[in-house]
Amino acid sequence: MDDGMQLQISLDKLPIKRLDSIEENGIERFPPDVDYDEKRLSLIRRIDFAWAVEKDEEKKKKQKSSKETSTPWQWQGMVENLQLAHQELSVIIDLINTVEANDAVTVASMTRPKLLPNEALSDLAVSAATKLQCYRHVGKYFKQSAKAFEQQVAREARFYGALIRLQQNWKVKRQRQAAIVPGNEGFTFDLFDNSYDQAAIIRSLSMSTVRVNHDAAGNLAINVSPDLCHSLQFGFVGAQSDDTRRKSNQNKSHFSGELNLGKTGEESLSDEECVKKTHSLLREVHEAIFNEQVFDLVNREAFNTVAGVSVTGIRENYLQLSLGQETSVYLTLVSNSQDHSTVEGELTDNAENAILPLESSDGMKREAKQNTSNKGQFSNSICYEIYIQQIFHEYIFGKGGDKPSSSGNRLSGIQAKDGSSLLGHFFKSLAHRIFSTKVLAELENVVCKVPYIQLISNPTWHSRASSWTLYMEVPQSILRGSQTKTSDYYEKNAVKRQFWTKVVVNDDCINVKAEGSPNVAGLFKGKIEETHSINKYNCNLADLPVIILQQVASQIINWLYQEAMMVGIKANRDFLCLSLELEQGETLGLVASVDPEDSEGCISWWLVMEDSFAEEQKLHMSITDGASEYRKFLGHLSLDLLYATLIDLVSLCSGGGSQ
Amino acid sequence: MDSQGQTTSLQRLQNVEKRIVKVLELAGGVMDELASPVGPRKDVVQNHCLEFMQLIKDIQVALRDEIKSACEYRPFEKCDYGSRIANEICHKKVEFIMSQLDAIKQTVDEYHVAV
């Protein structure tokens, strides 16, 4: 309270100063001593106004005293008002000072009650509760963050799980720049093999990198344009039915793919299905890249001079080659999403181009023959397609291992040579297959007409060699059991009952080997003759049926010859003739006639009688009936009938002998 | 936790993400323990903190290894794309042979019907 009193005293000084300045109208200020001013104030309040005026007159000059005298009434009113104002102001200032003093007292007193144990305890309780609340908030925040992050990890696990599974089969790369793009993590599938020849990149470079995206559900998705995926097709110009069948298959598979896409759109796609679908797409793209490379390599090497092959047509995705006058092939890349009608249009164009060479052929018969052989060729177009892919696959990937070890020049030389020979090898194989198909057609034609010949195919395991065997088995002899001595003698030397004729085709060269028969008569009579004869011919396709039929007929003659020798009849044989001698010096001949065009049996038989005496021959020739008596046509005979005929002839010879 | 036998980088990074989730859960657990009305249990808090620090260490080690291996990135030298194309070609061969066998069977059936 004493402090408050002191403050009040200091505050009371201020209005006194103001009063002095107001009274004198600002003309002068009194240099204030506090005690002096206070005394004056008390004196002014106690003494009347006139006395104050008198003192002023004493101090001041006369002029001033005159002014004061002129305004004493106005000043008196103002002085009274000012005094009232000062009183009010002093009261207000005292109130302000009191308030300030109270605040100071309050602040001072607020610190003191905290010293009480109750207040301290409550403060500690409040701060502890606040801390616990903060801990709970932080805990909730952490747990919510953990849950949110776990959900995010689970959502991304669908993407990354699929990517991890696909990474087991495909090369996955990441572009760091692309991280900014939303929905794209910057991952790409690299479908390019580093062991390739770098020059082969150009065509398939754009599609060898597949970008990986998120779809709306967070699943892994790749954007692959179906137009970029091509499949390789190899075929013969003019062929249509086989390709149509293959096209329908491809369109069917593609359509089923679209159905799957529709289903996946409707249903929520499971992770398993997503991975499978993506894997299938990547396989298609990868195979399409390989097809592009094969097509590029074939194009490049087709313009090197391959013997017997000329380029007759070329477009962006189409290459047409001519192997000869009769055969043209094409290699094309067909888009997997291409319409069926468009493909049909292209095939129709190719067919129209192919009609002209066929129309220029000579006769209907020849045309029909070509159609037959073409039919055989075209049905194997898929086979050739697979073969050309395999050849270039071995070339592309087989060089990868050699690349690091060999020098650049040597490598390029090897590649150039191998590349040229690869395509040459393929077309030589193709030409061989076409030619061997024709040979097979001829052989089948012969075998169908001759009932006692069988055709056997011999695998050669070589792409440019083919082999077949014509097999004939003759009936068993019925004379063997009748003569004990003869039977015992000939059992030691078993009579051959199987005959074969081998046909071997190397590239476009035909070799025919026909097995003969042991010469039993020579052994029987003690004469030394060749026991096993091989006939070998080089022939072309036109002569093949005649030669084969001649070989078969010769084998039949050999068989009949040894059967006659068993009976003991004197006989001679030529290539296609078996001659039996009669006692009178006449010769009875069984002659084979060969005609491939004969649809009834191809091999027909004649019975010919020759007379050694010139006179009788001249005599018989004069008579018209004599001709028929000397030559008689027996017709097409089976082996059994031939054997029966032989037995009859043998009986005739025996009868002649007895006579 | 998953085993340490993963081979791919993506799998290891996914494990790092799982560890981060675990770390956040541990932090939440510690906060809950501190906010317990009966007062925090020292052993529980200590175990949580130990596990927390261990996981942080594992995360740090894994990320450091991934960064190091990323710097040592190599092209795929043992890629089996060539073998895969060979498999596709063999698949085509098998399909072709099966179609040929089906044609033979059809011919045989037609022959039997004719006889």
Automatic annotation (TrEMBL), chain A:
Any single GO CC term annotated in Swiss-Prot or TrEMBL for this entry: core mediator complex
Region named Disordered: 242-264
GO molecular function, one term: transcription coregulator activity
InterPro entries xrefs: Mediator_Med17
Compartment(s) where it occurs, according to its Swiss-Prot or TrEMBL record: Nucleus
Superkingdom: Eukaryota
Any single biological process term in GO: regulation of transcription by RNA polymerase II
Keywords attached to this entry: Nucleus, Transcription, Transcription regulation
Major localization class: nucleus
PANTHER family found in the cross-reference section: MEDIATOR OF RNA POLYMERASE II TRANSCRIPTION SUBUNIT 17 (PTHR13114:SF7)
Family listed: Belongs to the Mediator complex subunit 17 family.
The protein's name in its UniProt record: Mediator of RNA polymerase II transcription subunit 17
Organism: Glycine max
Automatic annotation (TrEMBL), chain B:
GO molecular function: transcription coregulator activity
Listed GO biological process terms: regulation of transcription by RNA polymerase II
Keywords: Activator, Nucleus, Transcription, Transcription regulation
One family name in Pfam for this protein: Med11
GO cellular component: mediator complex
Subcellular location: Nucleus
Source taxon at top rank: Eukaryota
Signal peptide limits: none
PANTHER family per UniProt: MEDIATOR OF RNA POLYMERASE II TRANSCRIPTION SUBUNIT 11 (PTHR22890)
Membership in a protein family: Belongs to the Mediator complex subunit 11 family.
Subunit structure, interactors included: Component of the Mediator complex.
The protein's name in its UniProt record: Mediator of RNA polymerase II transcription subunit 11
Natural source organism: Glycine max (Soybean)
Gene of this entry: LOC100792126
